[in-house]
Amino acid sequence: MKTFARVIMLVLLLPVCPAAQTDDTWPSLGYLRSDYRSVRVVARVRIRESEIVNRIPGYDNWKIVAEVIEPFKGKFRKGEVIEYFHGAEAPSKKEFFTGEKIVFLLAEYDKEKKALRYSVLENSTLAPAPNRLKKLRLIRSSARRRRR
Question: pLDDT digit string (tens) for 86-99?
Fold first, then answer.
């Protein structure tokens, strides 16, 4: 049931995202900090491959393979390749799944593969605008200081 609720929320909120991404002062530091705390991995990535791997009416599930350009949180380091899944309202355009992005990734353990499976936190993928990167670097450094 949780998954269905997430899909519905994604479908309802997705149309708002493109307009918000053009304003590089959005999201606020508090909003980014909240998303940062909610996930296992935060990184600036360069997408190498993207393909639709599953469809349900009104919804596409994309498999993304990307190179980490700058890690902010999690086990991945610069230059490593990460695979993750991204749900999108159908019909989704491949152009959205190309280039550089800032991604916030949830992790679930896949019992069959005995490995973590990463998926995007809803409505969190952002273009890597200088202001957003600056905010994420600030969040990363304050998180490191708290761990010490």
Answer: 999 999 999 999 99
Nearest residue to 104 (alpha-carbon basis) of 48, 31, 50, 55:
31
* The amino acid at 14: L
Q: Which helix (H) or strand (E) holds 42?
A: strand 41-56
Rounded to whole angstroms, the Cα distance separating 139 from 141 reads 6
Neighbour-count burial of 41, counting CB atoms closer than 10 A to its CB (0-12 exposed, 13-18 middle, 19+ buried): buried
Residue length, the chain? 148
Interior CA angle at 77 toward 94 and 130, to 5°?
60
Angle (nearest 5°) at CA 91 between 117 and 122: 40
| Residues 63-80 pLDDT 10s | 999 999 999 999 999 999
Q: What is the pLDDT, as a whole number, of residue 144?
A: 77
Q: Please tell me the pTM assigned to this model.
A: 0.81
